[in-house]
Amino acid sequence: MYRVKLYKGIGLLELVIAVAIIVIALLSFAQAAVVFLRGAILSEEPQAASYLAQEGIEAVRSLRDQSWTTNITPLINGTQYYLSTSSSGWLITTTNPGPIQGKFTRSIVLEEVRRDSGGKSDILLSGGSVDPNTRKLTVTIQWIDQQGVARTYSVPTYITNFTNN
């Protein structure tokens, strides 16, 4: 009879251990789900910033295609500009039109491009001569993430007056 009681106690102990293991496993899965969801939410903002930067590049290209002389040439190198829309299309202004999607600020800066004078037409950081038909465009997206940290995403590229308009 003593042995029967011993086996009953061991079965109960095994049940408690099994329940504890299951509870720990479920809590671990729940914690992992929270971490993955938080990561997915935080990755949305940089992706949205990337799309907004690409849209900014395309907007400037559209303005370039309309008229380099009217839309690009008058812009001062190194000055921060903003893109906004109107019924007639994209506009470049010095006034911030406000946040995009209630969170993001998009700005653009144009800079002169210098090329070598040796006939290769390589872009130089200094020296050479200014190419009036090429500008360096940097689109910058700024926002405050969900944790209150200021974030910045910038994309530099070059635009050219290939249609001579």
Short description:
42% of the residues lie in helices and 32% in strands. With 165 residues, it is an alpha+beta fold. The longest helix has 65 residues, at 2-66.
Features:
2 helices
Task: Characterize the structure shown.
It is a single chain. It is elongated and about 90 Å long. It has two helices and six strands. Strands 1, 2, 3, 4, 5 and 6 form a six-stranded antiparallel β-sheet that branches. 42% of the residues lie in helices and 32% in strands. It has a domain of 114 residues. It is α+β, with helices and mostly antiparallel strands.
For the report, how would you describe the main beta sheet?
6 strands, antiparallel
Tell me the number of helical segments per DSSP (H or I, 4 or more residues long): 2
Give the helices and strands as they follow along the chain: HHEEEEEE
Tell me the β content. Answer: 25-35%
Helix content: 40-55%
Shape: elongated
